[in-house]
Amino acid sequence: MMPAKKRVVFLLLFVGLPIAIAADWPQLLGPQRNGVSTEKGLRQSWNEKGPPVVWQKEVGEGFSAPVVVGDRLVLFHRVGDEEIVSCFSATNGEEFWKHRDATKYRDALGKGDGPRSTPSIAGERVYTLGPSGRLLCLKLADGEKVWQRELLKDYNVPRSYFGVGTSPILEGGRVLVNVGARGAGVVAFDKDDGKEVWKTTDDGASYSSPVAADIDGVRHVLFFTRLGILSLDPANGNVRFSKRWRSRMDASVNAATPVVVRDLAFFSSCYDTGAIVIRAKKDGLEELWSNDRTLTCHFSTPVYHDGCLYGFDGRQEGGTEMRCVDLKSGKVHWKKEGFGCGSMIRTENHLLVLSEGGELASVECNREKYVEKARAAVLTGPCRAHMALSNGRLYARDNHKLVCWNLKK
Fold it and tell me: Is residue 253 part of a domain?
């Protein structure tokens, strides 16, 4: 009889699917949707060429971030008139499979025709949401389509500025999406067959993505919709609390993802709106502070460490600064120009920062001053997709290539 250990290995090889591990990066902003990695002992400095490149591949356009589970990396991008979901080996870049769908989407303002929403991997399934509202479920093993919904048509959603850009969240066996229609501001779909489970509110769709958290003894899913702050019970869609937080200017968007630290939640928008920190409760909220001077985030999401938020203040069109801000008081500890609206990942007490122009920097989490350990030009801007970090490998993309770097010492 085959030994138990060998039987396990055999079954894994037969199934051909990865096992979820702590180092996975299965969705936007990582395991907890907060831009924080639990990996330790990674490289914190490099020369002018950047960290060692493991592999790189030509890819299509888009601002959708890579996601990783085990040895499978999934990327959503556009080549010509096709939206493509590609699955590569996270180790060497070998292509496992590719799913193609024809698309006629054209950005009305010329801001790019590729996907903005980042895929989510849950179990043996991959979920993507295209700029024209196609919600797609594929098998992680081979890319076979499981189900599909056309959200803009199904719910008669009003036209937005840059197409659909929110990234769905998997919660309690359901796919939750800020759809943005009357009576269907947020909709929950069964993850296995795509059927509607519940729908709620009239909140328009934003470009922010929801986060889930246990607060005051109950489960919340926090959305930053076009209208503002919204907390829902993921089981039934009941509203736990809401607060209007958006610009008076119609030509504006809410785009940064909420940052939740225990019972505090940070929301931020540009267009003369600014940031707000609330203390969330089971069925209500308390405002700690709000202003348009501290950390006004256009679309990049800050990360938290030891009482401070590190993020990018200002609109993408110019005048942005990286800032370190006290979460509870809103005090600005320091400012640093030169990143644009970049993205970042925290590892232990360091930040991996990718500038909008394609420079990769290593920065200390230091509330007293800005301390840079390394910087290198690695990609071609604009870089607006978030990075991914899994098993000591950092992944980032521009509109031409996807690169994997080794951060193991």
Answer: no
pTM of the model: 0.93
| Contact (CB, 8 A) for 6 and 12 | no
What string of DSSP letters covers 353-382? Answer: EE-TTSEEEEEE--SSS--EEEEEE-S-S-
Three-state DSSP string of 343-356: EEEEECCEEEEECC
User: What is the spatial distance between Cα 248 and Cα 236, in angstroms, rounded to a whole number?
Assistant: 31
Amino acid at 280: A
Phi, psi of 7 (to 5 degrees): -65, -40
For the segment 271-328, what is each residue's pLDDT rounded down to a tens digit? 899 999 999 999 999 999 999 999 999 999 999 999 999 999 988 887 899 999 999 9
Please report the DSSP string for 238-255 in residue order.
-EEEEEE---S-SS----
- Mean pLDDT value across residues 238-255: 92
Beta-strand pair 218-224/228-232: antiparallel
Are 142 and 122 in contact by the 8 Å Cβ rule? The answer is: no
CA 29, 33, 35, 41 torsion: positive or negative?
Answer: negative
Q: In this predicted structure, what is the pLDDT of residue 316?
A: 83
Q: In angstroms, what CA-CA distances link 351 with 137, 267, 293, 305? A: 33, 21, 23, 10
- Dihedral sign of CA atoms 152, 153, 159, 163 in order: positive
- Which amino acid belongs to residue 321? E
* Integer Cα distance of 239 and 297 in angstroms: 25
Residue 203 — left, alpha, or beta (φ > 0 → left; ψ -120 to 50 → alpha)? Answer: beta
Furthest C-alpha separation in the chain: 71
Domain that holds residue 55: 30-63+341-409
pLDDT tens figures, 95-113: 999 999 999 999 888 888 9
Identify whether 269 is part of a domain: no
Distance CA 111, CA 251 (A): 15
Domains: count for the chain: 1
Distance in angstroms (rounded) separating the CA atoms of residues 117 and 210:
12
Dihedrals phi, psi of 140, to nearest 5 degrees: -65, -30
Phi/psi region, residue 392 (left: phi>0; alpha: psi -120 to 50; beta: rest), is left
Q: Is residue 350 part of a domain?
A: yes
Residue 359 maps to a domain: yes
Q: Is the peptide bond before 258 cis (omega within 30 degrees of 0)?
A: no
For range 107-132, the mean pLDDT: 94
Alpha-carbon dihedral sign for residues 260, 265, 266, 272: positive
